[in-house]
């Protein structure tokens, strides 16, 4: 299959470069594919009566310190991995899963590349990996890169 639009999702942790290198190998075999790179900043929720509303939609603050830092990290990530992205984006979502699934649907992604950290002990019971929660819901092929252990940001 020849991919046209590849989405690399990154958490910008120190092992994200491993996922980027897998994406580069895939793109080498699909010279006509465009690459999008996505980093999601989980949005804080504000309660209005019975509804929860993303705080960024109320304040419109997409240029605050948190956003500028995320954009700078994403730019360094792209440069360090020598990735030329058609689109690189830092966006807000109430969860990583919803943000990734929505992006795939809206942007006609046909291959999603994401890393998955291994979890042990109580974390394996309590925390659902983002990759595990999106796979049944994305409308495209997926490459999940196994990462051995959680790392620091």
Note down, in words, how this protein is organized.
By secondary structure, the chain is α/β, with parallel strands linked by helices. The chain contains six helices and seven strands; from the N terminus they run βαβββααβαβααβ. The strands form two sheets. A five-stranded parallel beta sheet has the order 5-2-1-6-7. Helix 1 links the parallel strand 1 and strand 2. The protein starts with a strand and ends in a 6-residue tail after the last strand. Mean pLDDT is 79; it is low at 123-127.
Main pleated sheet:
5 strands, parallel
Low-confidence stretches: 123-127
Rg, please?
16 Å
Q: Compute the average pLDDT.
A: 79
Shape call:
globular
Helix content: 25-40%
Give the structural class: alpha/beta
Number of helices: 6
Tally of extended strands? 7
Topology pattern, helix = H, strand = E = EHEEEHHEHEHHE
Spatial strand arrangement across the major sheet: 5-2-1-6-7
Approximately how much beta-strand content do the residues carry?
A: 25-35%
Distance between the termini: 35 Å
List the helices and strands and how they pair.
Layout: E1 5-9, H1 16-28, E2 34-42, E3 45-48, E4 51-54, H2 55-59, H3 65-80, E5 87-93, H4 96-106, E6 111-117, H5 122-126, H6 130-134, E7 141-147
Parallel strand pairs: 1-2, 1-6, 2-5, 6-7
Antiparallel strand pairs: 3-4
Keywords, please?
153 residues; alpha/beta; five-stranded parallel β-sheet; two-stranded antiparallel ribbon; 6 helices; 7 strands; globular
Summarize the model shown.
This protein has helices at 16-28, 55-59, 65-80, 96-106, 122-126, 130-134; strands at 5-9, 34-42, 45-48, 51-54, 87-93, 111-117, 141-147. With 153 residues, the chain is α/β, with parallel strands linked by helices.
């Amino acid at each position: 299959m020849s991919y046209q639009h590849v989405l690399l999702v990154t958490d910008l942790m120190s092992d994200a470069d491993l996922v980027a290198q897998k994406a580069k190998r895939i793109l080498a075999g699909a010279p006509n594919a465009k690459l999008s790179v996505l980093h999601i900043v989980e949005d804080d929720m504000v309660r209005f009566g019975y509804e929860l509303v993303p705080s960024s939609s109320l304040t419109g603050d997409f240029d605050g310190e948190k956003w500028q830092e995320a954009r700078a990290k994403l730019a360094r990530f792209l440069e360090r991995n020598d990735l030329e992205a058609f689109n690189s984006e830092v966006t807000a979502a109430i969860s990583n899963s919803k943000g990734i699934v929505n992006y795939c649907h809206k942007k006609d992604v046909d291959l999603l590349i994401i890393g998955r950290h291994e979890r042990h002990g109580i974390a394996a019971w309590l925390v659902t990996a983002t990759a595990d929660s999106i796979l049944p819901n994305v409308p495209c092929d997926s490459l999940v890169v196994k990462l051995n252990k959680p790392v620091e940001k």
